[in-house]
Structures are given as structure tokens and as C-alpha cells.
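#struct-pred
JK: can someone run the complex with flavin mononucleotide? inputs below
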Amino acid sequence: MTGITMKVVGVIGGAKRDGNTYKLVKAALDGALEAGHTTVTWRLMDVYIGHLGHFADEILPPIDDFEKMQPDLESMGALVLGSPIWYGHVDTRTFNFINRTYVYNRSYSEENAKKWPNAKAVNILTYETEDEHTYDHILEWYNHIWDWYGMKESIGLVAAGTTKKPVAEQKELIERAKEIGRNL
Ligand SMILES: Cc1cc2nc3c(=O)[nH]c(=O)nc-3n(C[C@H](O)[C@H](O)[C@H](O)COP(=O)(O)O)c2cc1C
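RT: done, C-alpha cells with the ligand placed:
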């Protein structure tokens, strides 16, 4: 155990409880635990995240479970966000979660836009295509969002070819995820 301990928040999209995405996020969180950090896991399939509304020139937050997540997001040192690729992008739950963060503390403001200034992001993607670079543009997309949110680092990790080789069989990759978690 070294250095400062912090809260590492895992947020998991997709539709499988114990799928590729969960396994790789869990490996990163296990690494974080080994380094002495605390971890919290939110599965997006278990919470209701609504859609943004609009009234009288204001973007309105829906009444949903996002506010239950917000205390963890506010106090985190790192976010480990895992998503499978669905039709060329992050899955719908992950996409909706990211959209939902636009309205923070019940409103959009310049101040809220810089909502996680000292946090790091670990962006995990899992997908069937076997090329490790096919979805580099999605990792770039994450980098832009986290930069806009004032986060201090954005790290990408992909599991390619998960149909032929599920994450459970990619021992080296699991080890790499743990290493990322240990080094947060
Ligand atoms: C609705 C749907 C759409 C998908 N679209 C893509 C895709 O566009 N590209 C790709 O490489 N894999 C695609 N896949 C495969 C998943 O990304 C892959 O199986 C992933 O590892 C699943 O993660 P999970 O086990 O956590 O659910 C798709 C799977 C589903 C269910």
C-alpha cells in the first residue's frame, strides 16, 4: 500500500451482470483495492437514469437515481467507466449516463461543468471486433468529455475480440486492468 488513498467509483454499462465489461472493470477495481483505495460499484442496469428535459430555456434534470450516485461521483479520486460497444458506440445506458452528467447539482452551470477536477478516468471498452484500434475514436471522445469536465487524466483500456476470446480468458489483459487500478 502506497501514497494517498481515495475512492474509486466503478460504473458499468451494458446488459450483462457478469459479462466482459463487468469482469474488466472489476479487475481494475481489484487492483485499486490492492493499492489500499476504497471502491464503489454502480451497475447502470440497476439504476434508473432518466433523460434530460427542457423548459423555459432551462435544461431540466429528470427525477431519477442519478442523485444517489452523485455523492460517490463528488468524492471520487477516479472513475472506472466500462461499456461494451453497441452499434459502433458505447451502449445506451453508458451514453445516457454521460448525457445525464450534463445536469449536475440539478442544473447546468459553468462551475458544474468542471465537476470532477482532480479525478482520473479509466475508460474501458469491450467488443467483438478483433482489431484493438477500431474504437480508438471512442476513447478520444471520452478524452474530450473528461477534459471538458476538468478531469486530470483519461486512461483507455480495450478488450477486443471478446466473442472468440472472452475477457475471462484474456489473463494478460486482466492483469493490465489490475495494474491500472493499482497505479491510480
Ligand atoms: C446490441 C449489441 C450491439 C453490438 N455491436 C457491436 C459493434 O458494433 N461492434 C463490435 O465490435 N461488437 C459489438 N457487439 C459485441 C459486444 O460489444 C461484445 O460482445 C462485448 O464484449 C459485450 O460485453 P458484455 O459481455 O459486457 O455484455 C454488440 C453487442 C450487442 C449486444
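RT: quick notes.
Residues 14-16, 19-22, 84-88, 126-129, 162-163 surround flavin mononucleotide (CB under 6 Å).
The chain has one domain: 7-182.
JK: thanks, will look after standup
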